[in-house]
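note to self — DONT lose this again. spent like an hour looking for the file last time. sequence + predicted structure for the chain T wanted, 239 res
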Amino acid sequence: MIVVGLTGGIATGKSTVSNLLRARGVPLIDADVIARQVVEPGTPALAKIQAYFGDGVIQAVGTLDRKKLGTIIFNDEEKRRKLNGIVHPAVRWAMLWLVLGYWIRGNKYCVLDVPLLIEGSLWKMVGKVVVVYCSVELQLLRLMLRDNSSREDASSRLNSQLPIAEKVKYADIVIDNSGTRQELEAHVDALVRRLEQDAGWTWRLSWVFPLFMVVSAAATLFWRAARRVKGSRRGNKKE
């Protein structure tokens, strides 16, 4: 099975591509959704956050107060690293189990939607990297329109992130979202066709070793059971 990492920059249209893939039945794992799930009440990650940051980051209903936590880590690099050290491993484990589930169900490929795929070095763990791209100027205009922000504020947000041109350097596939919605849908359809084609033999070969292990384990269990039955019969004859 091919594991595909999908990423982009702010206002490049990654979420739109993600939704288009999901609408086409592509197995998709959203890192942002998982990041919220791993800190729900009763989870080990939330307990660790509470132990380190204190009860003040927990709301009366038992959920994480993201706004207050964000204020705490905003200008504190050490605390931000501590939070990432709690949340990121939990997210990665959850994603791994979901990928395993898709593999067991026989999917040829799945897509990991990860905003910080490059920054967090998760690109090293996927088979293909897909980057949703548009020019910086278009990115800036879209961000201003989306958030109703000034050019200065939008530029500040863009400058705080890894430039989209740098992310493109890691890409196996680039989806150019500089045009119309119809053009973007055509790019997504082309991506799905390519994944279907590339995953053909990969999907078949990925089952060879696990299938061998299952058959081998079953044969071993059968042989041991047969020997136990044979030994039991010999014991009965001696009596």
